[in-house]
Design goal:
This protein is of the alpha+beta class and 244 residues long. It folds into 2 domains: 6-169, Roll (Structural Genomics Hypothetical 15.5 Kd Protein In mrcA-pckA Intergenic Region, Chain A), CATH 3.10.290.30; 184-214, no CATH class. The protein has 5 helices and 12 strands. The protein has helices spanning 18-27, 29-35, 73-85, 122-125, 199-205, and strands at residues 6-8, 15-17, 46-55, 62-68, 92-96, 99-102, 131-136, 142-154, 161-166, 184-186, 196-197, 212-214. The radius of gyration is 20 Å and the shape is globular. The two termini are 36 Å apart. Bound molecules: zinc ion (3 copies). The site of one zinc ion (ZN) has 6 residues, from loops. Residues 87-88, 90, 137, 224-225 line the site of one zinc ion.
């Protein structure tokens, strides 16, 4: 599968590969224009981390996000679940610098225990060039890598987490006809087997829908019971393409 998927810049709409997008975001005129807007007189400056997130073993799935430093690891976990990984409420964990931050609660935290992640403010632990590992589900695990690329202070953004770019869905052809785009992935496929199918071939081969999962724009596609995001559409729409 092609790893060099492109994604569009939120601010100017231009498509780039993930490695080039990092450079682009540092110099995009439309983004610089957005960042120059001063805060309102009664607003304090807010700190933001620019983070590149990608599938550790499937790098064609990637995104650049900007996260408010007052968010917690728990908030970041929720975002990753919402957009890429949530299927059955599995456990997850961040790890970096030899420390592990699971989303489990310990009663020693008090009467109303929060998960370990919820107690970790990003501004207290992240810094530029830090690499974090994230695992979702310790059975059928999805592995993500998060690279903190930058930190800046500026006027408060509308949302605590902003998507700056995200890969366009990779085109996956049906393994059977090699012509149509696949819509389903077999849950029983082993390496070497036909794995991806289009609607017509599913019908022709008599493959039951129960035996497949939908193709979706996520590094968790085809795993456990993952059916895609309920919160975010598969395709990221840059500001330049939004209806006014
Ligand atoms: Zn741009
Ligand atoms: Zn699951
Ligand atoms: Zn087909």
């Amino acid at each position: 599968m092609a790893e060099r998927t492109k994604g569009k810049c939120k601010y100017c709409g231009k498509p780039f590969t993930s490695s080039y997008m990092g450079k682009h975001l540092a110099s995009c005129n439309a983004r610089m224009h957005h960042l120059e807007v001063p805060p309102e007189p009664d607003q304090a400056l807010q700190g933001y981390f620019l983070i590149k997130v990608f599938g550790t073993y499937n790098k064609e799935y990637w995104m650049y996000i900007e996260v408010d430093e007052d968010q917690t690891l728990g908030d970041l976990d929720q975002f990753l679940r919402d957009i890429w990984v949530e299927c059955c409420g599995h456990l997850s964990e961040f790890s970096f610098l030899g420390m592990r931050f699971p989303n489990v609660a310990f009663e020693s935290f008090g009467d109303d225990p929060e998960s370990v992640m919820d107690n970790v403010r990003l501004g207290d632990v992240l810094r530029p060039n830090l690499q974090m590992h994230y695992e979702y589900d310790f059975g059928t695990t999805t592995y993500l890598t998060l690279l903190v690329e930058n930190y800046r202070k500026g006027a408060p953004e509308e949302e605590p987490i902003t998507i700056l770019s995200r890969n366009i869905s990779p085109k996956i052809l049906c393994d059977h006809c090699n012509k149509e785009e696949a819509t389903a992935v077999s849950v029983y496929a082993v390496p070497g087997d036909e794995c991806f199918f289009c609607d017509a071939c599913m019908e022709e081969l008599g493959i039951d829908e129960e035996e497949t999962l939908p193709v979706c724009n996520s590094p968790r596609m085809g795993m456990c019971g993952y059916c895609g995001s309920d919160v975010y559409p598969d395709e990221f729409v840059p500001d330049t393409e939004l209806d006014e």
